[in-house]
Amino acid sequence: MEVTAEVIAQHFNGEIVGDPNVKVSSVAKIENGKPGNICFLANPKYEQYLYTCKASIIIINRSFQPQEPVQPTLILVDNAYEAVASLLDLLNTLKKSKKSGKSWRAKCAWSAKLGKGVYVGEFSFVGKKSKIGKDTQIYPQVYIGNDVEIGENCTLFPGVKVYDGCKIGNNCILHANVVIGSDGFGFAPREDGSYKKIPQTGIVTIEDDVEIGANTVVDRATMGTTLIKKGVKLDNLIQVAHNVEIGEHTVMAAQTGVAGSSKVGAKCIIGGQVGIAGHITIHDKTSVGAQAGILGNTKKEGETLMGSPAFDYKQYLKCYALFRKLPNK
Q: Catalytic residues, which ones?
């Protein structure tokens, strides 16, 4: 799919310097740009490539002043780096056409309700009394249990499993093999050393605009709901345990584990392989470095934490400078 500089500029409220009718079909790094590519310059250390790039269009900041003549058409924007995400979204939207209809190899219960434009791929299953909002895409081999609610314009990639009763909002993306609503890890110890399983009777609620990476699991609540709030982004291979609450627009990198009944605030940034203990609270806008261990409640909003057990990152760096020099005995 080709798109002109004029269309791209309108999308960004950008200013064109050059040919508004030049067309591009793909994005490339500025050092590798060729005709038909669109590139961007956000970091000044790549300026040298601006003058040799063969791409058809380059996006740059309005404040940037080229020191030499530039051959490609330029689109001037307020923030070139932010524009890239929007550009990729635009090209992706133009390239992909949504599917609709139900494969004859799929199985939907008679009591299930599918909205207009819903696609259900081969060997997928939709259970009794489940509701699927309009334009939602359910790829092959997806399992949706009974009494599930999925909103509009969602995408469930192959292998996703949504257990009974769970609720998913609008504009959500669940990547391959995500599991929503599996049993929480609840077992009561007995006197003889064995464990009795505690029934997990709750659900998972996922609000609007959430994206969950491949092979991530969100457990159902023991009672009530495990809650993933609006705009949360979870990476691949994350474990979210029963009765956890994750606040709006929080992001978590891969291999993070959140133990049961913990509350993670809004707009937090959680690095990869972070471990969060159960029954604790993390304040809003907390940042946690990779491989940190959060064992207790955080102290205030907006902290940056590192280490295990985690504490203030400035203090951590001072301590690290000392303990890395300790003798190996």
A: 242
